[in-house]
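Practice record 12: protein with zinc ion.
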Amino acid sequence: MAKRDFYETLGVAKNASEDEIKKSYRKLAMKYHPDRNPDSKESEEKFKEVKEAYEMLTNPEKREAYDRYGHAGVDPNMGGGGGFGGGAGGFGDAFGDIFGDIFGGGGRGRGAGPQVYRGADLRYNLEITLEQAAHGFDTTIRVPSWDKCDTCHGSGAKPGTSPVTCTTCAGHGQVRMQQGFFSIQQTCPKCHGTGKIIPEPCAACAGQGRIKRNKTLEVKIPVGIDNGMRIRSSGNGEPGTNGGPSGDLYVEIHIKPHTVFQREGDDLHCEMPISFAKAALGGEIEVPTLSGKVSFTIPEGTQSGKTFRLKGKGIKGVRSGFAGDLFCHVAVETPVKLTEKQKDMLRDFEKLTTEGGAKHSPQSKTWRDKVKDFFE
Ligand SMILES: [Zn+2]
Ligand SMILES: [Zn+2]
């Protein structure tokens, strides 16, 4: 049986490019692959035929020999001519090629153009006050942005010169590495996937094709935002490469420490010093909140360390929408810098309370009992 013409086998023209040959081969190899056509002798023969034609026509030396001498130029069984070994190998090679393309080279169409990259995400640290976090506010920030370079009009090449096709990857932006049965696609190390080399970079943009500037961005800080939360501004990150999409900008919130309040989730805590007379007598006290002062009454005999909870006086949760509480921790203050008269009054007071017995000092009584138990 006369051997079929390699070009005919692959269904391509005599002047077909390597890409066209590969494309056609992949289609046919998939169609006739033995895994897809079990027990079909005809398919197996076709598969071998297609594979051989592919191997011949993608090897420039063999293709040249074939074009000049026909099958005699490449077939070892025909004597004469080139005598390049035919591809009698298993299915591994064909598999490698097919899978290499299926798994490799993410993010671009098969066999087409240079690699497209999404731009990097950017982070902007925004410091705000606790009041701003509690009430929400609108602000503007200055962030980097990029404009097309006026000098080179975005090409990155010095005016009068132009980028050239990368020779390492022939402009594909990808190179193929053979590893065992598999051929693996990798981003071209020379042009980093752009498919182009700039021999003389534009001085204005250092070959980047774009110039960094700043722009003003409006940011809406929602009510109740907490430390470490991020607000995303879509598409305001670094621009992509080769027409890839821009990254995003993340505004990360940092809340400055507050002089009065500590935040815990949506709750607030504050320490509140009161005089020991006020603590003993009870009465109305004024407490600060993030939305003004409020007053409430503490009972007679309030001890140091007692916590009062003011419901709903915390921060409205950014997700829940419910307000947290304010916890006031009472600290009874010992009076200092007393006058002689004040000291005399305190001595009298001390004498009277001691005569009155343990009932005036509940904590001391408990403590003394513990100590007593301990020594006995
Ligand atoms: Zn430029
Ligand atoms: Zn390259």
